[in-house]
Write a structure and sequence with these properties.
Keywords: Cytoplasm, FAD, Flavoprotein, Metal-binding, Oxidoreductase, Phosphoprotein, Zinc. 36% of the residues lie in helices and 13% in strands. The two termini are 36 Å apart. Strands 1, 2, 3, 4, 5 and 6 form a 6-stranded parallel beta sheet that branches. The chain has one domain: 3-Layer(aba) Sandwich (Rossmann fold). The chain is an alpha/beta fold.
Length: 231
């Protein structure tokens, strides 16, 4: 939709990968709609995943006992977080939709993307106490996960070896994104692309592009336990 701003937080090492194709088609389709699209290519940026003392550029508020959460909150208030965090926060602040494109690692995100969440979504910027879940500081923004898996779709049902895919979405969509106030759109999961034929992979990319044509008309999921775990 013309005038909308989208941030794609992308975590894959290989530009020609299937994840790379999904990211590229999202950039192309959303740009075609007149959106302004920004990509944070975390591996290409050599993004620092570790939350350390180096993230605070000024003096510590409690130098005698280092607490990352406390110091990041104080640094956010004093505008003394390190420049890479501030740059990412600015991108998030400006975005109407934040899209995460990544391969599933151990039912979760790759370390570089976990580090992005740990460092960028700090108290004061993304949430406060009070000021979380429906009152999170990023309310009014949309988020969506676009994930690729190694396992096939039948492994991710309730009766499959991995259990329902919604189980592993709980900490990411609810505990992270919803906690920060995002309205969460239904995830887009591309199951087992490496076991698919070239034709099937093309179809998977095309289905993502097709969904993005009407992404702005979608209703967010009800981000509460029943969506994930049933009644």
């Amino acid at each position: 939709m013309a005038g909308k701003k989208v941030l794609i937080v992308y975590a894959h090492q290989e530009p020609r990968s299937f994840n790379g194709s999904l990211k590229d088609v999202a950039v192309a389709e959303l740009s075609r709609q007149g959106c302004t699209v920004t990509v944070s290519d975390l591996y290409a940026m050599d993004f620092e995943p570790r939350a350390t003392r180096k993230d605070i550029t000024g003096a510590l508020s409690r130098p005698e006992f280092f607490s990352y959460g406390v110091e990041a909150y104080e640094a956010w208030k004093k505008r003394s977080l390190t420049s890479d965090i501030i740059a990412e926060q600015k991108k998030v602040q400006e975005a109407d939709l934040v899209m995460f494109q990544f391969p599933l690692y151990w039912f979760s995100v790759p370390a570089v993307l976990k580090g992005w969440m740990d460092r960028v979504l700090c108290q004061g910027f993304a949430f406060d106490i009070p000021g979380f879940y429906d009152d999170g500081l990023l309310k009014g923004k949309l988020a969506i996960l676009s994930i690729t898996t190694g396992g096939t779709a039948d492994m991710y049902w309730k009766t499959g070896a991995n259990g329902d895919f919604r189980y592993f979405l709980w900490p990411l969509q609810h505990g992270t994104l919803h906690f920060c106030g995002f309205k969460v759109l239904a995830p887009h999961i591309s199951f087992a692309p490496e076991y698919a034929s070239e034709e099937e992979r093309k179809g998977m990319v095309a289905s993502w592009a097709q969904r993005l044509k009407t992404i702005w008309n979608e209703e967010p999921i009800p981000c509460s336990p029943p969506w994930y775990f049933g009644q």
